[in-house]
Amino acid sequence: MNLLARTIAGVGAALAAQFALAQGFPSKPIRIIVPYPAGGTTDIMARALQEPMQKSLGQPVLVDNKAGAGGAIGAREVARSAPDGYTMLFSNNGPSSTVPILQKDAGYDSLKDFTAVSLVSTAPMFVVVNGAVPAGTVKQLIDYAKSQSNPLEYGTAGIGSLGHLSSELFARAAGIRMTHIPYKGQAPTTNAVLSGEVKVLITTSSGAMNSHIAAGKLKLLGISTAESSPLAPAGTPLVSQTLPGYVVEIWFGLLGPAGMPADVVAKLNDAVGKALALPELQSRFSGFGVVATHSTPKRLADLIADEVPRWTRVVREAGIKAE
Description:
Blueprint: H1 3-24, E1 30-34, H2 41-57, E2 61-65, H3 72-79, E3 87-92, H4 93-102, E4 114-124, E5 126-130, H5 138-147, E6 152-156, H6 162-174, E7 178-182, H7 186-195, E8 200-203, H8 207-214, E9 218-223, E10 249-257, H9 262-276, H10 279-287, E11 291-292, H11 297-318
Parallel strand pairs: 1-2, 1-3, 6-7, 6-8
Antiparallel strand pairs: 3-10, 4-10, 4-11, 5-8, 5-9
């Protein structure tokens, strides 16, 4: 058999194997790796999908926590798994966009080593200031920052967090100087902006934060998404109305290894969509501060493809180094 014939035969065999896999999928339990410890919001959301996805797929769906290295350990395991749809990753902006930028030894490439299946949930970042800051809009905050001799302090949940990168992106888009004050988690950052220890906070919403906004102790100036969000009070402005192009979306989604058959992706995507259509699941997700969001695989893939160069640029320009 000459080289051309062997190549054609090889391609044909591979396509036949993929077709057979897709036709019989799933024939055994599916494992969803959560790259964080059990009990956190990411883990709880993944487990909320288990029962409805099992009903759709006719096979057990198992959640397996593989925490460590900011999510890199779990993501790396999925990237190195067989692309058969039986080992999946419940990911977010961190493992799929920012971690490999900050950790050169992460061991995987966000753009090459995964197959996008579907978004699961999304949320905006809130731009919040201490109640004493003389600014009621994003424009007024920018003007206030420019009028000060010292940079405004902003808090984040840690070096390299999405809040850190989003705040640096905000400062660059606005042409202002801000000083980073890292904390350990969201609760301390909320306390810091409440006390005035920091003036600005760009972060996810929470019940505690919303109550402080309603009481006037904090001021919500805008949200980071391209469209209004049910998680924000009605009429909350978009940051992009003042800073065109400033759009940051917190997301959670399902991915698998690179090279998954399209029919397998479609079956998993359909199962996610049916789960997210359930009113009780939508209500539960809202309680976590996110919106249940089904999407095409392409939308999730495009989102990651947009984020990686953006955050690479921010990390480089701001000189951010992982702890």
